Amino acid sequence: MKFASFAKDGQSGLAIETADGFRGLLADAPGFPGDLLSLIRAGGAALTDAGECLAKGEVVDVDAVTLLPPVSAPEKIVCVGLNYRDHSAESGFAQPEFPTLFGRFNSSLIGHGAPILRPEVSEQLDYEGELAVVIGRVARNVSAAEALDYVSGYSIFNDASVRDYQTKAPQWTAGKNFDDTGAFGPWFVTADALPRGCLGLSLITRLNGQVVQEAQIDQMVFSVAQIISICSSFMTLKPGDVIVTGTPSGVGLAREPQLWMKEGDVCEVEITGLGTLSNPIRNAAPLAKSA
Question: From the record, what ranges are coiled-coil (predicted)?
Fold first, then answer.
């Protein structure tokens, strides 16, 4: 099943892909089954039942609505750095023997079509196309062999990074959490519709139509199953939590000359079976002080 979280006329909604396009319901419509996060957390047959309900809903023109992040408010967003050997090499790091993990916060999330904002304080806005995993069951101390049974579905992520802020300290938090830099979408595809662990799928990132990253998901150092198993060994993963699995080589930081995203650019991340996440780049307005 392929779901779309969207907004129209000030209301959020949920749609599912059918043989004749997307159909769905707005949150204020009778019979609305709930948003995607609540359905994932409900577990059991909630997603299947919701899909059947939404398929009887109104036609949704996904080009005429605002697509939202599939899951807008996950409890945790766990990102994996240096998970492709060629990217570790181009970044000047020895390949880690344990996943390089860092957190994103949901305040940074945007959906397909929304602008990634280059902050006023930096020119060094970089792209990172990645596979996103959405957890479907409480996972604590699970083995790699059983870890994929805890996946609800998959999506695409652009872990847009402000590089000079990323390297201001040994921890990468600042450079990975500017507002409107975590592009997520366009769809949520249930795990049963894809190869286990997304093995065999390809990832391509394009900047203004030019391919800047290209890799197979199989090239990840730590597979989806291994990442889930390792993370669950020290923390409890909850339904709706998102794991962003790492980016391959070709980032702007490592190029000569360096290639930064700027006003007017368009960045696309495509993964087989998951669609294409596309976002324009805009300059952020100067920040006003909070009251």
Answer: none
Domain range holding 61? 2-67
What lies within 8 Å, CB to CB, of 38 at 6+ separation is: none
CATH code of 101's domain: 3.90.850.10
Single-letter amino acid code for the residue at 54: L
The per-residue pLDDT for range 240-286, each reduced to its tens digit, is: 999 999 999 999 999 999 999 999 999 999 999 999 999 999 999 98
As for how many domains the chain has, the answer is 2
Specify whether 35 is located in the same domain as 63.
Answer: yes
Which helix (H) or strand (E) element contains residue 46? helix 46-54
* Domain-located, residue 107: yes
DSSP bridge pairs for 109: 182
* Best CA proximity match to 138, nearest among 158, 152, 126, 125: 152
In whole angstroms, what separates CA 281 from the centre of its chain? 17
- Model pTM score: 0.97
Other beta carbons within 10 Å of 118: 24
Rounded (5°) CA angle 158-156-197? 130
Instruction: Please say which residue of 49, 67, 85 terminates a domain.
Output: 67
